[in-house]
Structure prediction request, 703 residues.
Amino acid sequence: MNGPKEFPGFEVTAASFLTSQPNVGKANGSSLGNARYVVHTQTTNNYWWSVPVFLVLGFLSAASAELFLVKDGKPEAVLVLPEKPSVIEDFTRQMLVSHFLQMTGAKVPWVFESELGILKIVNGRAHCSAQTFKNLNLVFAGNCFATTQLGISTNQLPEDSLVIRTGSNWLVIDGKGKGVQHAAVRILENSGVRYLWPGELGKVVPRSKDISIDLNVSETPKLKQRRIRSHGLTPRMSTGLRRLAYSPAEFTAARAESEKTEAITPTWFEWHGLGGSLDVVFGHAFGDSWQKYGKEHPEWFALQPDGTRDQKASPDRSRFCHSNKELAAQLAKDFLDALAINPNTRSFPIGLNDGGQTTFCMCEACKALDAPDGAEVNIYKIGKYVSLSDRVVAFTNQVVQPVLEKHPDVLFGYYAYSCYTSPPLRTRLHPNVVPSYVGIHYLDEAYREESLKEWDAWSKMVKGGLIFRPNLLLAGRRAIVPLNYVHKMTKDFQHLSNTGLIGTDFDSCQHNWAMLGLNYYVLSRLHWNPELNVNELVDDYCRSGFGPAAEDVSAYFSLIEQMTDQMALKKVGITDAYSSDRFKKLNSILDGASERAAERTDVLNRIEFLKIGLRFARLQSEVHGLRNKKVNGEVVDSDSFKKLLDERFHLMRTIFSRHHMAINVANLCWADWGYWGVVSWQRPRVEEGLAPEAGEEKIEFEF
Prediction:
């Protein structure tokens, strides 16, 4: 609709407001569910908060009641946008209108605010002069003039805050930054919508003739940065695609098709409120150092066990000689040069390179920087040694000091990682260096417990807070099977959130949704509110996504969690955990789920999605079991082994083309291809003119 663009008229009678204060009590911690009225009290530790908006914003209100947006399949409301909506506000409008249409078949109209004419607020009700909208409820989305006149302002709220307020015949959906989009998602979730995994199959969109709202809430996420990396097309993925006989263009098309939804929807990550406003850049910062300086200054790089400092084996992952003062001075100059070009730069990454085929420097000067009583670590090509944290922290401080003397407000993102994960014993990071801790995963309980101790030590040492940057979502990626660690993960996330956590950077969601989807889902919800109850989250996931089969699917996830815990305790390996008896039990559970969901096509399709992961896991268990026997010198029937690998290869291609979000098979082909050289397997020919590719012997080393 297009209407006049003059500023809307307004009449507000102060005496017309009726003040009402509903019962205020603590919420149960869940941001899900279908409660008609959601009110939370502010917590004393200033983490995530959710409070009545009229208390936060000084709002005087009439008592709210159930507000219909659609009734009996017909629109009961009009969506009102500011005169010049932002990109986020306009996207929010599209998202709401398209979801309402999918849910009810009703096309809820929308207008710019000026099309309402004169708007009066009398006794808590909104009255507009435009005849077209006189009998419709008014839904103000974004920074409307009416919103401020109602006493609701987001100006003083932190970034990403959302505000929802229901009046007698009006609804305000607003927020700071992307907060208006977060608020719209909350409205949809209050009406039963869920986004379990990307794509239409993962969307739960209930059908109804009615949509009504009675929701009053204002929320700000605790974490300033909420990041789960989304694994997309990378050089590694391109390698995997080539091995699968697919092209990058085919991957891009398959990914886009698999993420399509009927209603206009933000990415799965945005839907769950991931993002944030933390102004610190992290990353491995020195990938080009060997190329830039290796020829003229090989002495700047790590002394290798063979007596050379050659980094050509992994030039983009070169290692430094941390005791070399000339190197530190050059890196400081590089940062200063960058600031001369762009003096407004707020922060730089200063994480060291990781992985590769070279190792850390073992010259006498570098070893003198290490604390003799440091934690024991196992260093590639070196063996057991002490933690390198003191040398790395000392080197980092030496690099940043000249920069901060001229630019005292610049921040540096530091990785506590690899052989320098534990806190230093003899040195302390400069206050302008923000540490990002890389630890914890759920296939090694001892490592998990040690990581938590290290986190606690770091949190006591660093006053400004810590970033959590784990690789736990990558665990098992070379032998991927279904895993479930939601209870441990929730417990740890809540502990971290109470001991200095200010942001996250999870590496990475690899899009193995049929195997790890529940972990991704629970983790995303915890990012918005770390205090959520994990049992309620899992119950809601199963109930909303699997309806009559909810108990069966819950039992399926529970058994996988037991198996994951056993693997973490090293009682069994992955292939042992997924024994034939366990497969029979898991398949039996999902078969029972299918029987109970026989009348629900949507639920049956989601159960089949889980079965794809289980079917592939069976092949994973068999081929890895045979490989282990081969490596251990046991006799293995090579022909049978190769036939299983052929079957696995063809199933991976089928998954790629038909069930793309179930398992990221291209990434798996990058990660595990070299394993199959033990049996001299070559992939089957899949199309004319495409030669089979031999298994590769080397797998890139990573810490």
